[in-house]
Amino acid sequence: MTGEENLVQVLDAQMARAAQRVTRPLFGLPLQQLTAAVAELGQKPYRARQLAQALYRDWVENLADVTTWPKKLQIDAESVGFEVNLPRIAQVFTSVDGTERYLISVSGGQTVETVWMPDGDGGVPDEDDEPTMRPPQIYRRATICVSSQIGCAVNCQFCLTAKLGIERNLTAGEIAGQVVAVLKRQGIKVGRDRINLVFMGMGEPFLNYDAFMDAVRLLVTEVHIPESRMTVSTSGILPGIERFGMEAIRPKLALSLNASNNEVRESVMPITRKWPIEQLLAAIKAMPRRPRDRVTFEYVLLGGVNDRIEHADEVIQLLRRANLPGYVNLIVWNPGPGIAYRQPEPEDVDRFQKRLIAGGVATFIRRPRGRDIYAACGQLKKTAGSAA
Ligand code: SF4
Hints:
The protein is α/β, with parallel strands linked by helices. It is built from twelve helices and 14 strands. The strands form three sheets. The chain has a ten-stranded mixed beta sheet, with helices on one face. A two-stranded parallel sheet has the order 1-2.
């Protein structure tokens, strides 16, 4: 056997041993489960609190960086397979408008997409969104768009992610980990810098309900991002909306409406056949309302499909009947390869917004962000090759 062949055999054996080793990710576990993990190592609960601080506030990437733990404990934890497993940013695409799109590595060699918008997206303003003179190094309204699944099963006809189909659900650690990976890259201090989270990336959060809500609780209780700074968008998964209404901690809700009647919505979002608009609005209305709760209605404008003045009038009627406090966010459709819609004309967008406002519906136009890097709404798909 040559030296080279021998070396290959040794490497193969090492790889086989590494593959057999069961790893146990810590990032993503709530305090209760971290307490159980340290108990396994014969440790008291205060070690779990130290670990939670290291994972969710200090954002360590290795157990060796948990400086409040003695070296022996770090080694013991590693020896039984525990590892941090914070998702890592594998690739960055930067837009001319400052938006960054990331491919973030998760387990199984897969990647997921997350977007950083340093200046928000111009959609529904926050309650306290008054213009202020802030020091320039502090972002006024940065937003992170987070994915909940790899791919998506919902099949909205205007969306590039739909083309992937569903590959798998993300875990709570992979959902919250996207946020922490981006905060870390951007040098954000939670509590000092204002950060909004929108769960509007790849996937339908309510089809991965438990992991999504676990991630939300983790982000609120351990990372300390208030739920009032989070919005989840659903395509209209009725059982998910009903469960969501009962949660003690929950983000704001956005419904991806995208049409003024069921017929048009069915052609754009086939899921409407299962849960028509009226049922969705009734479920949202039945949710226990918190002070200052507002529902966002996302409306992707598709040229000639749902952007006519009669559609605007139907939206007004629909929302009047629903009698829900809320806003409409108009999103000019972002083109993607292989999708046969056209963008609405600028004057049609303007006319649509003016008509809704005249009809008493608060309406904002969401600025497209990162279109040149396929980071804009509905464009998330692993387009590494094409964007590069
Ligand atoms: S718009 Fe959202 S729910 Fe619809 S296919 Fe795309 S990712 Fe899925």
